[in-house]
Amino acid sequence: MHLIPRPARLTTTPGTWQLTENTGLIADPAAGGAAELLRELVGRPAGSKLAPAAEPGPDTIRLRVDPALADEEYRLSVSTEGVVITGGRRGLPLAVQTLRQLLPAEIFATGPAGGAAWTVPYVEIEDAPRFGWRGVMLDVARHWYPVAFLHRMVDLAALHKLNVVHLHLTDDQGWRMEIDRYPRLTEVGAWRAESMLGHYSEGRYDGVPHGGFYTKSELRDLVAHARTRGITIVPEIDMPGHMRAAIAAYPELGDDPERALPVATAWGVHEQVLKMSEETIAFCRHVLEEVLEVFPSEWIHIGGDECPKREWEESAWTQARLRELGLSDAHALQSWFIGRMADFLAERGRRLIGWDEILQGGLAPGATVMSWQGEQGGIDAARAGHDAVMCPHTHTYFDFYQAEPDGEPLAIGGLTTLEHVYAYRPVPAGLEAEAAGHVLGTQGQLWSEYLPTSAHVEYMAFPRLCALAEVAWGTAGEYAGFTERLLAHRRRLDHLGVAYRR
């Protein structure tokens, strides 16, 4: 079976089952969402309405919710008795994706399939993921992508049984989420004068304005679309660094309110950071309030990475603020700020997650660390009793080259091959069992400075995201076996029109 990710347990017996236009569907009341997903992804391409059936039989698919199973666990049986799918609350959508992969690859075609025989081998699958966080991060701040592409990324993530799409919505080079209370964030902050050409060191620009943003309505629709596929959208509003676009819109947020700054056009880290006044704290809270209205995710990402301290260290106002708060230095000031945001989110039943720099100056109670500068940040967090998502740049940064640069599109640098991704294991060697229990999982990062189009995003994401999906599922084994299955999986990607690296 050429399934990606590979199931935990799979056995086959001789024989096949056929999906026909007369195949019926029986679904528990609690399985209504999975039934609609099955009709959309399996029934519609096969020309079957999957109409409700009166009772189980050889030509039926049955969906059942079993509260005794774990949330994302499922069982899939294909036999002379038809198809029976049993799962936990979020296990049924995962099983639908498995059944979809068991069918001929032509079912993934967006056009007429040409009369393919929709047969499925007799199989028994018992499956559940090892990790609860299996994600992909898309940076829409450096380059804006059409909202239809965000829906497509959700669909592609779901196909590979990922369950988190992390949207990096703001940065120095663009603010992408509509905030009613602060309209200039999108009127000004969503647009920059030009973008860089070539590598950063070349200092060249294209002279072409770039921008765009997503309305709350568009983002709510995206959240609803993702929910049907068992995916959580985790929003990121980066603070207190990477806020140049917000400061361009509202200069009073910065250290010098009289200084007019444009939205950044250069990549990299910019010195301008938020002024740590109570007015700025109120701004951040107001923004997050509107974020919470749109995104029901338990986790809210506040970035916290790459926050230069020079402005704070050279500012007489900030130094006085440190003394007022009884803080020792700028690192302690950032920790104080992160703590304020963590408290704000906790009061509303949410959890703060940030990049591993939030460890600097002390980690806020309840905060989750996303470890990108290697694994040490995640290890330190886990040993301190905090949850961690392991996404070291060495294995999970998909803006890095996939092969030697000659013959590859321009990338930020680095080299992360498919084999290197597949070799990654999210729980660091030597981590004690209790601490290892705090490793939630892993995700791939698609930073978009060098990904100007959606097709380029797909090229850099796939097939590496296929490999990471199996790593996150917990069934990664021999690389040769994975690549053999990937050869067959490529036909599915071909039918979907994915611009993957061949």
Automatic annotation (TrEMBL):
Domain of life: Bacteria
Ranges where the Beta-hexosaminidase bacterial type N-terminal domain occurs: 2-128
Keyword Hydrolase: yes
Catalytic activity from the UniProt record: Hydrolysis of terminal non-reducing N-acetyl-D-hexosamine residues in N-acetyl-beta-D-hexosaminides
Family assignment from sequence similarity: Belongs to the glycosyl hydrolase 20 family.
Keyword entries, A-Z: Glycosidase, Hydrolase
InterPro entries in UniProt: Beta_hexosaminidase_sua/sub, GH, Glyco_hydro_20_cat, Hex-like_dom2, HEX_bac_N
Keyword Protein biosynthesis recorded: no
GO molecular function: beta-N-acetylhexosaminidase activity
Enzyme Commission (EC) number: 3.2.1.52
Name by which UniProt lists this protein: beta-N-acetylhexosaminidase
